[in-house]
Amino acid sequence: MGITRTLDVNEVLARQESGELKRRLRARDLVGFGVGIIIGTGIFTLAGVEAKTHAGPAVTLSFVIGAVVAGLAALCYAELASSVPTAGSAYTYAFATLGEVFAWIIGWDLLLEFALGAAVVSRGWSGYLANLLGLPQEWFGEEATVNVGAVAIIAVLTVVAVLGIRESARVTNVLVLVKVAVCVLIIAVGVFFIKGANLTPFIPPAQPGESGASVLHQPVVQAGLGLEQSVYGIGGVLSAAAIVFFAYTGFEALANLGEETRNPRKDLRIGILGALGVCALLYIAVSLVLTGMVPFTDIDASAPLAAAFDSVGQHWVSALISLGAVTGLTSVMMVELVTIGRIGFAMGRDGLLPKPIGTTHPRWGTPHRMTIGGAVLIALLAAFVPITELSDMVSIGALSAMVIVAIAVPVLRHKRPDLKRPFTVPLSPALPIIAALACLYLMLNLDVLTWIRFAVWLAIGLVIYFAYGRRHSRLAVKE
To answer: What's the pTM value of the predicted model, to 2 decimals?
Structure first.
């Protein structure tokens, strides 16, 4: 049956050696891709928004919690990615361990995560560009009927992604250097404007949420326990951690590049853990500087960092931050487009999506059909749907994928103890179980409405699977 059908790991490894995707990436390219997708909305927007609405100065602690949970999940990704280096990452790992239907669910979740993520970032990019260049808000702002700027940047980056992975890596690495330099500048200059009073109390006392707020906007863990909706305090820190986790989710994109990495058994674990470590340090330092410069109640939610430096008279830094945001968000979209192409390619190759999706361009060696199709969907979302309606779903999709990956580690060890594992998660199965529970707990700190939307997305996906994928998959053909 579909639930128990699994891919043979030897078949997966043989297929990834077939040369369908060209091996051009090294460890430094993977770190560049990782930093490119991780540093973006989280550092330029979410730190300020979550400090103001949920956690106060303790948003720094929220980033620490997010980094620890992401680090646990990254260890699981690193073991599976180095052992089974193939396009599709968590989707393929689930296929080889838990079965076809779980693989479909996780692939469906990942497509949701990266498509919505790219749409969110493209709208943010459009707004930053408008502020930087004085462009008309009716075409580039959140009030635009059609966000032309968001659609335009997705179109340009799709061309780059289709032309080749090496070209994508070059563009991304240049953009990464710019935004990392801006982050270092924020820390180096901002540290001189930190005031101790702004960081006291570090964890603001818990306060009731908005009066009359619907239970749909309450974290599941609060609603389930019958608690009144509240912000700040420990609950606010955890709610912020669940939301800012979105800022770390990019590291799993690297696991999709196993078939295009020159030495995947070594370079994948360096890329995943290295990128996550660099970004965690930058997030924690920048959020501490931001909340130290400005009282958290006065943070400008639309452009937190730029406004913070304007408030202390450092307008030249503010301008550079806007430039860094434009370049930083560009690299995030670049990697998300590349990732969507690889996930769809793996699912098409396995027959769960139409076979033409699982083929590469004869000249450029990239999954061009899925990349273009995904870009069309992203552009439509970015053109018409506001950021606030897009962003809530990204974290829950990523966290659900990480739960599956964490479970897959001990399952694959049990099924294939002979498999060569260049990197192994320490203290398995205890640590993977802790990783899965930690991800699940963060999911429970997302609001009820997000869970309802997530359930609807899963239901749609299961209808497609049973109507098409289950009958056309590679394993169904074998039977």
So the answer is: 0.78
